Amino acid sequence: MSHTPFRPPLAENALPPAGRLKATLAVLLACGLLAAPPAGAQAQSSTGAATLRQAFDAAWQRQPEARAAQARADAVRARAEQADSWLADAPAIAISGRSDRYNRDAGTREYEVGLALPLWRPGERSRAQALAAAETDSLAGMLTQSRLQLAASVREAWWALQRARLDRELADARVAHAETLAADVARRVQAGELARADGHQAGSALAAARSEQAAAMLAEAEAGQLLQALTGLPPAATQEARPEALPAAAMPTMEATSEDGATAQANAAHPLLNALSTEAERARRQQALAASQGSGPPELTLSTTHERDAYGERYADSLTLALRIPFGAGAANRARVADASAERIAAETRLEAERQRLRADIALARARVDAQARRLDAAAERDRLAAETRGFYDKAFRLGETDLPTRLRIELDAVEAERAHARARIDAAEAVSRLRQALGLLPE
Q1: How far is 336 from 330, CA to CA, in rounded Å?
Q2: Domain span holding position 325
Q3: Residues 135 and 205: beta-carbon distance below 8 Å
Q4: Which residues contact 395 (CB under 8 A, 6 or more apart)?
Q5: What interhelical angle do 271-293 and 124-190 show, nearest 10?
Q6: Which residues fall within 8 angstroms of residue 46, CB to CB, at 6 or more apart?
Q7: Which CATH number fits the domain that encloses residue 427?
Q8: pTM above 0.85?
Q9: pLDDT in tens, 270-294
């Protein structure tokens, strides 16, 4: 049995343009809308057939990050609104009263009502606004990073199921061939054309094929359960394996053949690097804000006093304006600055390590795609030759021109060649998936 050699199609567009996301309310709302089930996933549940992209969408709806996206967006929006306020915190009202009723009782009375307004320190408000903008980008980057990590798991489970399903189909075909051969041998044994030992050999080959079929069915069930645990979709709902499009930027260009060119290509427009970059920027702005906050915000207090000194006197009113300025760096503020500094260092370190890892992953993924394509061509040629040889020996065996052991050996060779060709097709499609994963592209 021969197969058409796999040739991954080229996508029309290369990597999506990646620039920094703007700190706007629209981005926040977009992040929140990620938690809403896509129309494609809803349509899939009614039709009962899912593609790799639909399996990924179904898996994403089950993730905690997707379900909490709207709440996180609301929190970021609230902090952005606070940073835009003219006050560093919510104002407070203070009410107090003073009386000598329980000691001298001379009629002294005093009532005071004040309004405390927390103020920004110099430069603190602009740094809080910058942090709010960075948190917007960081939230979008965190969701992107989570989606890419999930995409890797879904792709691995998806192709494992496709490979197990293919092995089961090949095992079914081998059983069918073995049953046909065993029936032919049994007929010829009864006719006295073959010895009983030949009938035993044919029966043994059929039993081996059925044993392999049972093992393949179990492996397919296990792979299906792993994918179902991720996506919630029954294994029967997944469609036949279809290779993803090979990105136009998949093959190295003249600019990327050098070490510096490969580094630049790995750094440019990669969603994961963008996500880590926004997280590092958020940590830097958090450290800058913590350093400007000091021990607490200054407070401007405006209060009015209504008082008298003794019975018979008229109440007098007065107005008080006070400014409270904390000074010194307390232990709590030093802890905030140290924590923010640690987050910044960790984020910058992760960014640099991920940049180097991605560069190696992309190079390895490209090499894998090229090697699997060449392997597929060789497997296709072997499968074609083995299928033709099977036909020759099948005809010769029916005419009595060859013995059963040779016929069984040729059959086994043809089955192995067919399995190798089919697996090479799956491996070539998976190699493209891995390259897309290394380039930061979601399933399609």
Answers
A1: 10
A2: 25-438
A3: no
A4: none
A5: 150
A6: none
A7: 1.20.1600.10
A8: no
A9: 888 888 889 888 889 988 888 888 7
